[in-house]
Amino acid sequence: MTWKSAFISSALVLGSQAAMANKPLPCPTTWPLQDMIWLVQWDIRQKIENRLRAIETDKKHQVVVVTVKSPQEYGFGSIEQMANKIGNGCKVGFRWENTWVVVLYTQVPSRYRIENANTERYITDVQSGRILDNSKANGVCKKEDVACRLDAITGDIDLLIRKEFSDKPSVQKIEWAIQQHDNHEFNKSLNEALWNIGIGAVVLV
């Protein structure tokens, strides 16, 4: 093998590795559970997704669940980095209020992460740790049963959110903030459109 062919082969290998490390971010869209490695059985998946949709409808919180083989496949050095990127990069949650929670499971290494935004005042790091520990303790789930543990984890998150927003006025505050944001964005778009029309009129004249 000549040095040129060796160089080309090395470049192809490196290029292939780089491509593997940069899979598209698995953003939850229509489905709040993105099981990229097919670990969650259909009945449990439906149970979890119904719970997450109910949280979104009732309490204006968007909780999403993502499972991946490893964060490195997506170009991240840690589960923490990837969970944070899913929350911010995928635009999870409701406008302005940032009421989102990301539950991320990585298979290699086997780890769980609860990442949140403004919800951290009532879903603290300590509570997140307890939720993760509880999912494998007291006979709730076997440590290796990912589907069962994700069900338990989202169930505990559901309880915390519903406890914090137990009455209608608390939810109405979020709805008001969402409406304010939507009005702001509408006015911004309208002003930009009028500005562009004005520029167009000047050019035509």
- Enumerate how many helices there are, as a single number: 6
Estimated radius of gyration: 22 Å
Beta-strand share of residues:
5-15%
User: What is the residue-averaged pLDDT?
Assistant: 84
Spatial strand order of the main sheet: 1-2-3-4
Largest sheet geometry: 4 strands, mixed
Concise description?
This protein is α/β, with parallel strands linked by helices and 205 residues long. It has 6 helices and 4 strands; from the N terminus they run αβαβαββααα.
Give an overview of the whole structure.
This protein has 205 residues and is of the alpha/beta class. The protein is 55% helix and 11% strand. It has helices spanning 3-20, 42-59, 79-89, 125-134, 146-164, 168-204, and strands at residues 33-35, 62-68, 100-106, 111-116. A 4-stranded mixed sheet has the order 1-2-3-4, sandwiched between helices. Helix 2 (42-59) links the parallel strand 1 (33-35) and strand 2. The model is unreliable at 3-8 and 10-19 (pLDDT under 50).
Any key phrases for this structure?
about 55% helix; globular; alpha/beta; disordered N terminus; single chain; about 200 residues; 4 strands; about 10% strand; four-stranded mixed sheet
